Amino acid sequence: MKAYNFMPCRILFFVQLITPCVVGGKVPAIIVFGDSTVDTGNNNQILTVLRSNFPPYGRDYYDKKATGRFCNGRIPPDFISEAFGLRPFVPAYLDPMYNITDFAVGVCFASAGTGYDSATSHVLNVMPLWKEIENYKEYQKKLEAYVGIQKSKYIIQDALYIVSMGTNDFLENYFAMQSVRAFQYTTEQYRGFIIGHVENFIKEIYQLGARKISLTGLPPMGCLPLERAANMLRGQGDTCNNNYNDCALKFNEMLSALIQKLNKELPGIRIAFANPYGIILQMVQNPASFGGKVPAIIVFGDSSVDAGNNNQISTVLKSNFEPYGRDFYGKMPTGRFCNGRIPPDFISEAFGLRPFVPAYLDPMFNITDFAGGVCFASAGTGYDNATSQVLSVIPLWKEIENYKEYQKKLEAYVGSKKAKYIIQEALYLVSLGTNDFLENYYSIQSKRASQFTIEQYQGFLIELAENFIKQIYQLGARKISFTGLPPMGCLPLERATNIIRGHGDACNEKYNDCALRFNVMLNGLVDKLNRELPGMKMVFSNPYELILQIIRNPSSFGRWYKYYIIKYNYLQAHILKKALHF
Predict the structure, then answer these.
(1) Are 5 and 254 in contact (CB under 8 A)?
(2) Phi, psi for 490 (deg, rounded to 5)
(3) Neighbours of 335 (CB within 10 A)
(4) Coil, strand or helix at 251
(5) Under 8 Å between Cβ of 48 and 113
(6) Distance (Å, whole) CA 208 – CA 139
(7) Which of 172, 177, 298, 506 is the least crowded, having the fewest Cβ atoms under 10 Å away?
(8) pLDDT band at 400, cuts 50/70/90?
(9) For this UniProt entry, which residues form the secretion signal (predicted)?
(10) Does residue 94 have a pLDDT over 50?
(11) What is the pTM of this model?
(12) Element (H or E) spanning 272, and its range?
């Protein structure tokens, strides 16, 4: 199988495509069949040369570990599992590190190099599709023994099934030299032969309980690296094999028609066609439109982006205890004010970097880690230095001092030229301001409230924000995402306070109005600085409306509010790429 990496927007696209088939119900598990596009390590446990359990595979996976995924990091089922509120990875069924307690919420039966045609699996001695189904039947028995008949039936019927294969049937089998299938069938006949196998497979897993299925089409397989390299050897240049691409397009048309047919014929089934062809072809033909490389993510702000710096200072404002971190890797509270990852982590991963951004003060990390991303944020801080004094946290000026220290370490580590490149090409995430109002101005006995009207204080903070941006601009920052305020009157503490006051479980509209007006001023500041500062590319990231929608009308998001938050973070990354011309 020709391994290729999925771009972050490809992942987002993949998740969007499978959404329609699961709307209206919870997904208790992700169940995967297929080839190397979705194999999470089963080939490690069989006698085949087709494995990816060595570097550079896995270099961006957790602990930089090569797991058997044919990728530098995670693969589509992993992202999809996390997007639906399950584990951030789907374990391989044959991996001895896992058992039925893990597989109850997600399991992968895929085998790199396989196809719908059993003859395809013989080429590299991998698992044929019929064996994947046998393993699935065995899994069902184990699941029933583990959770009972009723719950097992629920998991099997409500799980999302991801099916991704077919490329090997053509590239490793039909189009291969001395192919038996090529003597037996024309290309048109072989496509029909494979479609027949697809139909039989879907009907078989339907009989076994599958109802929600995402069926993936073929990519532009003539553009895969090996095919382009073969064209170069033939003296045809670094071009795609259009014969293979045409085959993929025609097969996808047949696959789409099959899906429509099965959705009509099989009661209760919901199959969605996930077609990767178009977007992958765009990436191949016009990679510049998807932007360039971001060498690092650099973060300033408060608890919305603090990855754990407060753990290392004398303050009561820490989150290094449960239930914080319960959905983070290793179920470990890291100092993030969240059950799992926070926006910079998702954005870092979406740009092809590590799936988390480490805190600068965390002794577990050093400059080798920080070269690809670093967080200076401190929960409880604000633009106003007086805000940081309320809970004894790191003021913004100290975050800048730490950033200057980081620059010196970076230069010593990678050299002056590369350090300058990283600093100027990095994406800077800035998220703070809520504490300036809630922990400072609106607090009891606030000095700022006696010094300023609310309008004056907003203007005071805008001046501080401008000075901050100009300061990091002078230090090299050029690409900045500047985050506005959320509907801060709807935060849990404010709503709880309203209950105590006898106002019911309502948002504090006064605070929300303040946030709205402040965001308008921030947006104006962003426009002003983009005009004034040469080379500056700054975007205003406004979380207000999405969060307000989730709070006011959660039912419109179904049970998938977590999916929408994750999708929002990946979408933000895609928007940043376009807006900042990455």
Answers:
(1) no
(2) -105, 5
(3) 25
(4) helix
(5) yes
(6) 11
(7) 177
(8) very high
(9) 1-24
(10) yes
(11) 0.62
(12) strand 270-274
Q: Distance between CA atoms of 52 and 43, rounded to whole angstroms?
A: 8
The one-letter amino acid code at 13 reads: F
The H or E element spanning position 498 is helix 492-500
121 touches 128 (CB < 8 A): yes
Q: How far apart are CA 435 and CA 302, in angstroms?
A: 8
- Structure-token match 């929600």, residue found: 212
Structure tokens at 201: 């497979």
Tell me what the pLDDT averaged over the chain comes to. 89
| 232 vs 99, higher pLDDT | 99
Instruction: From 206, 212, 244, 216, select the one nearest 228 (Cα to Cα).
Output: 244
Q: How confident is the model at residue 292 (pLDDT cuts 50, 70, 90)?
A: low
403 alpha-carbon distance from chain centroid:
27
Q: Residue 139 contacts by C-beta under 8 Å, 6 or more apart in sequence?
A: 93, 100, 103, 107, 109
CA dist 296 and 275 (Å) reads: 31
What angle do helix axes 76-83 and 8-18 make, rounded to 10 degrees? 60
Tell me if residue 2 falls in helix, strand or coil. coil
What is the number of other CB atoms lying within 10 angstroms of the CB of residue 49? 9
CB 123 within 8 A of CB 176: yes
| 61 in Cβ contact with 67 (< 8 Å) | yes
CA 6/CA 15 separation, integer angstroms: 12
CA distance 111 to 118: 12
C-alpha distances in Å from residue 174, one per residue of 167, 177, 193: 10, 8, 12
Supply φ then ψ for residue 175, to 5 degrees.
-85, 0
What DSSP assignment string belongs to 94-148?
T-TT--HHHHTTEEE---TT--SSHHHHHHTT---HHHHHHHHHHHHHHHHHHH-
H-state helical runs in 234-303: 242-265, 277-285
Tokens coding 395: 């003021």
Cα(464)–Cα(25) distance, rounded to whole angstroms?
A: 47
Q: Which residues does 33 contact at the CB level (< 8 Å), separation at least 6?
A: 109, 110, 129, 132, 133, 136, 161, 162, 163, 164, 165, 201, 205
Q: What residue has token string 């693969």?
A: 75
Nearest-Å Rg of the Cα atoms of the chain is 26
Contact (Cβ atoms closer than 8 angstroms) between residue 301 and residue 430: yes
The Cα–Cα gap between 169 and 221 comes to: 11
Q: What per-residue confidence (pLDDT) applies to 82?
A: 85
CA distance 110 to 216: 13
